[in-house]
Amino acid sequence: MTKWGLVGLIVLATSAGEVLQSMGMKHNGEIHDFRPGALRSLAARLVQNRYIIASVLAMAVSFFAFMALVSVAELSFAVPVTASSIILETVLAKYLLKETIGWKRGAGALLVACGVALLSL
Amino acid sequence: MTEEQHKKTRIFTVIVVLSNVLGNSFLSRGMRGVGELLSLSPLPYIQALFNPWVALGASLLVLWLLSHMALLSWADLSYVLPVTAIGYVLVALTARVFLHEHVSPWRWAGIGLIVAGVMLVSRTAAITTAKPSGDAA
Hints:
The structure holds 2 protein chains of 2 kinds.
Chain A: H1 3-28, H2 36-46, H3 50-72, H4 75-82, H5 85-95, H6 103-119
Helix pairs in contact in A: 1-3, 1-5
Chain B: H1 3-34, H2 43-48, H3 52-72, H4 77-83, H5 86-97, H6 105-121
Helix pairs in contact in B: 1-3, 1-5, 5-6
């Protein structure tokens, strides 16, 4: 697979993984208790959450594709270029997760995306 | 957002950013020793995990995944993404200082835009959707 093929795969897998992760964690509910016993019961619930299972699979694809990418490209190229997923994920957050993207958050995401594009030059 | 959520958000944002930056940096450092890896077979990837730098990077990225999941249990994805993007700035600095990669004026300009974007988004509420109904730990 080519360098740009890997970038495309990472962006798609990361976007799918993070949106599914957000769905799964919101479905599970906010974490308040970080004691070992409570975290064990949380882990037992999460391994049965289908959003989390799908998310971990997508993130594993993203991780191994990233390993391949950093074996052929510089880190200062690989990290920013794959961060272009921010735009896709912000759109998915609005339409799939029903989050409110006000002007500050929209403009902020756009500034970050432009900054990331400059970092990849 | 409650004071508890503000505090948790700050702590977990720091963990997410640091584990991601250090994890990616160690992974990159290790993969340089492993060599080109463009195979579709899983074996070379598993072999690469035995490189100490790659193993350390992968462990930190597992910490990143877990802390990111915790943060997303109460914060919006569209909040978490830009706020944790400050990590891209740290990656550029790490690449410059420790991996001796060249950081051009364009990249410094990109760093400035990311910082401005992060500052703007961090002034919004971390959660805009309905409060989750689950009774998680």
